[in-house]
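Journal club prep — side note

Before the paper discussion, L.F. wants everyone to see what a predicted structure for a comparable chain looks like in token form. Sequence:
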Amino acid sequence: MTKMISTVYGLKEYHLRPKAGDRYLYRFETIVDDLSNARNPIQRSYIRNVEIMPLGQQDNLYVYQIFTAKIFIKSTTAVADAFLIRKIGYAFDEIEAGVDSTGKIVRIYNTEELNLRWNITQEELQKEYKGDYIGNYFLEVSNLFNDEARLIQFLSDYKMFGLYFNGLFGHYLLWEMPIVRKHSLSDFGNQEIQESISPEKKEFVRYQIEGIPTVRPKNQELSVTNYRGELVYNDNNLVEALIESESDLMNIKYSTLLLG
């Protein structure tokens, strides 16, 4: 059922208000509950402490530096490749992103620098990790750094920085609410979700999100049966955000929390 937007609490507009030189520390977390074995469910949590710093404006875009300070992995079972996961995670560090007025990443200004650092990291990792599977994985990462459009798409995923750079800002017409858009879930076989997003302002600005699949994956067990979330803002800063997706095989929560 489509949610009606209150004319009292309905939000007419909301915009980014970045202050050049400010630093915002966030915790980005992805919690994966593997439900494939009902007798022995496994939970893994991938946590990144990230500093986001507005640098000013360039080319009519807001420029942000995204710095990954620390990566943690927690699991109810041993994670064999934890070191590898962290090393690859740090490859997506010190990013200079151009963000439009809606809050969407549209440019990456330092792709050459990112690619150079990844090549150095890759050479180090190839001394310890070998085989076709890992070689193909390294190639996928290399292809990202060599294709700005694909890199932007990857960084805009909810499991990366998509909860912060979400493209939802601007002017709203209450009679056209909720905002409806499509989102692809890479962790669920790239199935397409139609999101219905309702922005409201009470004590805080809150975007409530509901979703239904429009294109289901080949593996029906990955088909999303529950999709919901919310984004909470105060003083034009994201305070916390959560998107939860669930299928028969797994439950994934993408979250972001302002630490300071």
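L.F.'s comment for the group: The two ends are 37 Å apart (CA to CA). Keep this in mind when we get to the figures.
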